[in-house]
Amino acid sequence: MTYALGTDELWTVVARERTSLAELLESLSPQEWEAPTQCGDWRVRDVAAHVTLGARATVGWALREFVRARGNSDRMIHDTAVHEAQRPTAEIVANLRGIAGSRRMALGTTPRESLLDILVHGQDIALAVGRDRPVPAYAARDAADRVWTMRFPPRPWPLPKARLVATDLDWTRGEGEEIRGPIAALLLFLTGRPDAVAGRLERGPRRAEPGPEPEAEPPDEIPAGQTA
């Protein structure tokens, strides 16, 4: 079963998430912009800068940066974000607002990566500064399913040897020890952020599937001429 959103619905969610993230960023103090995140050595400002790049990058720019990173895509992603993060915070926010409704994508990606990117990195920022940022469950399910099934671009995180079960909607993947929790928490777990969801996921043996209810026994026959 696939849980992918329709194209228009997906881009509507992306636009809404980008806009709300810009609003969150506008409310941050200078100290919060420098806060460390769950995304490697990136600060909030590095993560914010990164989410503005995919929809603004040209093919020529991407190729130049790829060469500069000596063909290492992870290094390219890291270094371009850190470089972009040197901009004033107001400019980073303006760039994010400027791409809110854009359907342009980073080279070699699909619309589902755009959704995955804004959902996960939005959480990276919110968690770093102690803000609550609810994730639409149906959108998180699309992103989690994309992580589980992606082949290209190559999945940067190994899949857990476990059975993941969402507790707030219909989504199950994998085999082994069961890990249960909200789909938004499972998405962060799948994308290499286990510390971010500590206490939000439950581990344990696989729960038995509920069986069919037993059929009711027919009532005893009452001999003719008698009443119950």
Layout of strands and helices, then pairs:
Layout lengths: L6 H20 L3 H4 L10 H10 L5 H10 L4 H12 L4 H10 L12 H18 L8 H13 L12 E5 L5 E2 L3 E5 L1 H8 L11 E3 L24
Helix pairs in contact: 1-6, 1-7, 3-5, 3-6, 3-7, 7-8, 8-9
Explain what the structure shows.
It contains nine helices and four strands, in the order ααααααααβββαβ. It has 228 residues and is an alpha+beta fold. The chain has a four-stranded mixed sheet with strand order 2-1-3-4. A hairpin with a 5-residue loop joins strand 1 and strand 2. Helix 3 packs across helix 5. It starts with 6 loop residues before the first helix and ends in a 24-residue tail after the last strand. The C terminus is likely disordered.
Short description:
This protein is an alpha+beta fold and 228 residues long.
- The spatial strand order of the largest sheet comes to 2-1-3-4
Assembly state (oligomeric): single chain
Biggest β-sheet description: 4 strands, mixed
How large a portion of the residues is in β-strands, by DSSP E? 5-15%
Element-level helix/strand string: HHHHHHHHEEEHE
Integer-rounded radius of gyration: 23 Å
What brief labels describe this structure?
228 residues, alpha+beta, 4 strands
